[in-house]
Design goal:
The chain is an alpha+beta fold. The protein has seven helices and 22 strands. It is flat.
Length: about 375
């Protein structure tokens, strides 16, 4: 409800299109992240690691690691609780060069109760092609904590996952390089034909004065292709284009999250004139039986006489006429009914079913 009232304070002259830089609404197709994954071991836990009997892969990994270090483990039985098997994941930044660092995420695989205080042992991170692109190692930072006593346990957050800031060193460059690109392909983060056409027109207007011709064309509602002029440097061209401003457009949309009661209404949302009534009927039934005694020296018996009280109460049964030529009047009309966010959610769904809501209704 507070969100709708805050939106209601917007001026009526607010324009749905907002001016934004190209770097804020689009990304370079060749400049995407690449996902990496690896399997490793975390050591140094305070008795919160895997049970080696319940997690046999942890014991196998421990033996293999010790053998690689020249330590024989044959004939011995390990019951350590200070080690845990983990999956290590990371996003390789675009155009990353060998020697640079990146963050990694660590998640427990076995029955370890906490990774707090642990250290990730050297772990190789591979891409989808099976090649090793980075190596991770370092102390794990865990945001959650867990405390256990004889009769109680307190846990806050997640203790079986954490991060190693700057814990991975990139060892192999990506096969493709930025300078090898012939064209620049810009992808809109929110696909829209109007925004794509405006972005193309803005780039062409800049290119006409700088390079003497058009260089941008629209493929669809998401991609805008920019051809590299002969006398232009690709990196400088991208730096000039990404700082151009464009009026970004977006479809009319209402996003509703029924679990949290969150309602987000876009600036372009409109509704036709419609009458809305919202009220809650509460029926209370109370049973108050009474005991009836017979007269003295009579042949009567004790009986129970039923007594029922029924109270019906209907609150908030207001009727309001809503009409939304702009965002402010729509929000003011919803607020005039005086209901809570769950009631506004039901009202918006009803308006959509009646065909009066001219927007996409997204339920989360």
């Amino acid at each position: 409800m507070a969100l709708l009232m805050a939106l209601g304070s917007l001026p009526q002259t607010a324009n749905a299109a907002s001016v934004a830089r190209i770097k804020d609404i689009a990304s370079l197709q060749s400049g995407r992240d690449n996902q990496l994954i690896g399997y490793g071991l975390v050591v140094g836990l305070q008795g919160t690691g895997d049970s080696l009997r319940a997690s046999p892969f942890t014991e196998q990994s421990l033996r293999a690691m010790l053998e690689n270090l020249g330590i024989s483990t044959q004939g011995g039985e390990n019951r350590s609780k200070n080690i845990a098997a983990v999956m290590v994941t990371a996003n390789l930044p675009p155009f990353a060069s060998p020697g640079s660092r990146m963050d990694v995420s660590v998640s427990s695989l076995g029955d370890a109760t906490s990774l707090r205080g642990g250290t990730l042992v050297m772990t190789s991170l591979s891409g989808a092609d099976g090649q090793i692109y980075a190596v991770a190692q370092g102390a794990i930072i865990v945001s959650g904590f867990s405390a256990t006593g004889d009769a109680a346990q307190l846990t806050q957050g997640v203790t079986t996952s954490g991060r190693v800031p700057n814990g991975a060193i990139i060892e192999r460059p990506l096969p493709s390089r930025f300078k090898d690109s012939v064209n620049l392909v810009l992808q809109l983060r929110n696909p829209d034909f109007s925004t794509a056409v405006r972005m193309s027109d803005t780039i062409n207007a800049f290119a006409a004065t700088t390079y003497g011709g058009r260089i941008a064309s629209v493929n669809d509602n998401q991609e805008v292709v920019v051809e590299k002029p002969r006398n232009a440097d690709l990196a400088r061209l991208m730096a000039e284009i990404e700082n151009l401003t464009v009026e970004a457009d977006a479809p009319a949309r209402v996003v509703i999250n029924e679990r949290t009661g969150t309602i987000v209404i876009g600036a372009d949302v409109r509704i036709s004139q419609v009458a809305v009534s919202y009220g809650t009927l509460t029926v209370q039934v109370s049973e108050n039986p009474t005991v009836v005694q017979p007269l003295p020296f009579s042949d009567g018996v004790t009986a129970i006489e039923p007594s029922t009280d029924i109270i019906a109460d209907q609150t908030g049964s207001k009727v309001a006429i809503l009409s939304g030529p702009n965002l402010k009047t729509l929000v003011s009309g919803l607020n005039s009914i005086g209901v809570k966010p769950d009631g506004i959610i039901a009202i918006l769904q009803g308006i959509k079913s009646a065909g009066a809501l001219h927007a996409e209704l997204v339920l989360q």
